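Hi,

Apologies if this is the wrong queue. I'm a grad student, and the batch job for AB hydrolase-1 domain-containing protein from Fraxinus pennsylvanica produced an output file that my downstream script rejects. I'm not sure whether the problem is my script or the file. Here is the sequence I used:
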Amino acid sequence: MYKLDLWSHKTIKSASSSIPFNNKTRHFSFQFLISNTASRFSLPNCKFSISNSLVDNCLVDGDAQKNTPPFEVKTSMWNWRGYSIRYQYSGSSGPALVLVHGFGANSDHWRKNIPVLAEGHRVYSIDLIGYGYSDKPNPRELGQNSLYTFETWACQLNDFCTDVVKDQAFFICNSIGGVVGLQAAVMKPEICRGIFLLNISLRMLHIKKQPWYGRPLIKSFQSLLRNTGVGKFFFKAVATPDSVRNILCQCYNDTSQVTDELVDIILRPGLEPGAADVFLEFICYSGGPLPEELLPQVKCPVLVAWGEKDPWEPIDLGRACAEFDSVEDFVVLPNVGHCPQDEAPHLVNPLVMSFVARHVKRSASLSSAAF
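Support response: The file is valid. Your script probably expects a header line. Output copied below for reference.
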């Protein structure tokens, strides 16, 4: 029988089973294709401790969740640096949670989480500038080349906590939203109480992760997309119901969750003026911070959860996140893809509640001890 201090050991757990993972050093390497050239990278050995219970203890009965009356979700707009930013909110008491979406998504992607988490929390979900129903300024028309960066979005997130939430907050993030949350916590550590990362983007197309001989080709391709009609043509081909559905069916393991409603949630804001420019700006953005650069700088607790069937951010690579001191747990979500909060909210919502509750309790204990 294993006895572990959850606050000082790394653990890997499955969200559907209390059976521990094999307690051996994990070795893994990965390959990815850039410009039809395969390049192999090796990651450091990863050692994981054994834990049997955290996820099982925090999971709640799915039917009980369904029988709970949903909290009303409201929508509002916030003026940030002269731009209109949409956000949604629900709940009137408890610690504040700010939900941060991934690439091409928006605050509606948390529609299955907000009303559930609002029971006992003040929940906010924001559209990052350039996405959803927030403004989508063209940086080149403003004489800027770096509007859509993780630093910009991190500033937006921190300012949102200051101006709207008016409190410290836990950041609950999916995909590139995870990089935004980490960057925000590094820039203003006094704002973030903890970060829950769902399939954080590992930024495999980052320039630092490409072989030297492929970098000129990548830059040429990015220039082609940004500065010619090829990019707009590509966007038009992607911004259709069938294309969006096909893309979602790739990243959702349970394709029954790819509904007409979900397709509309993702596609509709993408048809607004300026959306194509934002799309092209980001897919040509191969600089900025990497998760492995930010995690060592984060002072708050971090929990990483990963859909094991994610085809875009493979879990074997994601496990490397557990090696950082700031990461207290790595939780495996069985048979779930890249967007666990929407595909498997019955797994994600209880994990979020448990993560927040124990750190609120821990903070209260530390405050009491100080007196």
